[in-house]
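Memo to structure team: turn this sequence into structure tokens by end of day. - J.P.
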Amino acid sequence: MNARSILIVAHAYRDDTVEAAARIASIIRQQGATPVFDADDRAELAEIVPELADAAVLGVDVPLERIDAAVVLGGDGTILRAAELVRGGTAPVLGINMGHVGFLAETERDDMDEAVHRILDGDFAVEERLALSVKVRDQSGAVVYETWALNEASIEKEARERMIELVVEIDGRPLSSFGADGCVIATPTGSTAYNFSAGGPIVWPNVQAMTVVPISAHALFARPLVVGPEHAIAVEVTGVAGSHGVLWCDGRRTHPLPPGARVSVRPSEDPVRLARLHPAAFTDRLVRKFQLPVHGWRGPSGTVMTDAVAVIPPAPHTKSDEGTPTA
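Reply from structure team:
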């Protein structure tokens, strides 16, 4: 069934993004579908492109449950915002990279028209990504804040001049306490983001797991951990005087963490849905986005890569004794 209401997520900070948003809205209308914007996005874009002033507004003209897909123009930060906008619905998110790395993006701006037509035709696959359910409790154990994250939940120090004192717990049992700049709990999707910068491992998207990565910990044992989805993680801010922290989820949602606060994290029951147009090996995405050198690789065909950064052809879809490509 064709998608009939498409959410467009874009900001008005760059001329090329504004032009792309107007073009996508025009294509959607030409196909008899409804372009929809968040109220703030529409207001900003309409100041530059007046014909967008009468576009439908999410939650006012079109309810969330009627959104068939979200087309996102921007980098990973904009895609995270789109995931927040469609949270609670079933619409998959398609990222069109207008930024630099764009690790979550499915396609580049040069392929924008084709991508929009395929979304309108329903010609895409949906990939479900693990998200985190995050709760903050006070010293009495009462839940004072509840949210979610696609990339990561990070517990960070509030004051630059002080470390934050933390205790990490797995399944109700204390694992280690340390002073640090903070601690990152990430999903496989977020493993290439803050988790990666903090020294955590890259986790393949289809692996159901969470990583726990201390940030600049002053401790003998403060190594990254990989924890299965059936386990519960908690990080407590100890009662040490001055040990105030801040919770950040995807760098977008925040809550203060006074001494004694407890952050519990487990997999959410509601995954984030990403629209996929092209099956591709995650290995190829890593090489392309991080510009990894693969000089000298021979591979099953025996062809030696000679470029410092290779353009890798599509992986075969047949299993061999040397590995199976994964989407």
